[in-house]
Design a protein that fits this description.
Blueprint lengths: L10 E6 L7 H11 L8 E7 L1 H11 L5 E4 L2 H5 L8 E5 L15 H19 L5 E4 L4 H6 L7 H9 L5 E6 L2 E5 L6 H4 L5 H17 L6 E5 L14 H15 L3 E6 L1 H9 L5 E4 L2 H12 L4 E5 L4 E5 L16 H14 L3 H8 L12
Helix pairs in contact: 1-2, 4-6, 8-9, 10-11, 12-13
Length: about 350
């Protein structure tokens, strides 16, 4: 069993259930039921979402994992963190327990965002130390009237920040994204010196905070073969290289632009601590191919730790009991380790390894 290092009490990790119509509630209760260290020693888990949904999921998918109600900050302060019952901060959403599997609904969108907002509020109040999130459905969120695309945008709003990034990690391969929820036809417009330099500074700062003394950061190229000296595009010459040069002059151990078809393999081999991926799928494909089920998403720039599974709501298998909880387990474990100062290296060691999955989740 993994235990806390003794220098600080186990982190309280708020775990949001995500969209009730997806596999989020299932993977949350499965992760907590299957991993003793997530209840005893490593962290103090607090589920945030509909109690009815959590209870139904626990009975159906986790052998009746014992739960308890929490409805106030006073009750949270009095929780007996003995691992026998998992506290659930109930988000009272009418009809949440009746949401059908595999269908985006207004109620599902409301409870998804309300859960995230509450978890962020508790983190900003220092009542919890980390957040780990199950997947939400963007269509359901839009149906519910919210403008944000995903978790990152909601959390940035709650924290009042503008400089925030998504990092996907699987073992020693870590991809920090320059852009995420941007159409591919527009992504190249964001490949600008100032944005790349800001991302390099943010990555260097966050990695040092997480215990990496001298982060080695690679920057991926945008065009095939790194642009071939401008023959296949000039972004490498006019935007990426100048950003890297400026970062190096500031003491950041940055390299690039490096061809995208090889830089992630080099990073996975341990030659870099992180790679700046220039658009969503450039980073996502590399990390998910490396270990789909064990990969984790981590935010950089927030005033608290936030991790997430690296898969979607998987409406096609929701309610069947077929969902794997490996990524959810790894996300909770990573949140606890980062929140208690054990750093990225320990998070790498703790990530579970698997053979290539038989099923992947959208």
């Amino acid at each position: 069993m993994t235990t806390n290092n003794g220098n600080s009490p186990p982190a309280i990790v708020a775990i949001t259930l995500g969209d009730p119509a997806g596999i989020g509630p299932e993977v949350v209760v499965k992760a907590l039921a299957a991993n003793d260290d997530l209840r005893l020693g490593l962290c103090r888990p607090l589920i945030v979402g509909s109690y009815a949904v959590a209870e139904m999921s626990a009975q159906r998918f986790a052998g009746g994992l014992p739960l308890s109600h929490v409805d106030s900050r006073e009750q949270l302060a009095d929780v007996d963190w003995n691992g026998q019952k998992i506290p659930v901060w109930n988000i009272d959403t009418p009809g949440a327990s009746e949401i059908p599997f595999g269908v985006p609904t207004i109620a599902g969108g409301v409870v998804s965002i309300t859960s995230i907002e509450l978890a962020a509020t508790l983190a900003l109040e220092s009542r919890i130390q980390a957040i780990s999130t199950a997947p939400i459905n963007k269509e359901a969120v839009h149906m519910a009237g919210y403008k944000e695309i995903g978790h990152q945008e909601v959390l940035a709003r709650m924290a009042g920040i503008t400089e925030i990034a998504t990092m996907l990690m699987a073992h020693r391969l870590r991809a920090v994204h320059l852009t995420t929820h941007v159409p591919f036809r527009d992504a190249y417009k964001y490949v600008a010196k100032d944005r790349i330099l800001a991302r390099l500074r943010l990555t260097d700062h966050e990695f040092r905070k997480w215990g990496v003394a001298e982060p080695r950061i690679a920057v991926s190229a945008l065009n095939p073969h790194g642009g071939d000296a401008g023959l296949l595009g000039r972004e490498e010459i006019e935007e990426i290289a100048p950003a890297v040069e400026q970062a190096v002059s500031e003491g950041i151990l940055a390299e690039g632009p490096l061809p995208a078809d090889s830089v992630f393999l080099s990073a996975a081999a341990g030659n870099y601590d992180a790679v700046i991926a220039l658009y969503h799928d450039q980073g996502h494909i590399a990390v998910k191919m490396h270990d789909f089920h064990g990969s984790v998403s981590v935010n950089l720039g927030l005033p608290f730790v936030r991790t997430s599974v690296d898969h979607g709501t998987a409406y096609d298998i929701a309610g069947t009991g077929a969902a794997e909880a490996v990524s959810m387990s790894a996300a909770i474990r990573t949140a606890a380790l980062l929140a208690t100062g054990r750093g990225l290296d320990n998070a790498n060691i703790e990530q579970e390894t698997r053979q290539a999955p038989a099923r992947v989740y959208g």
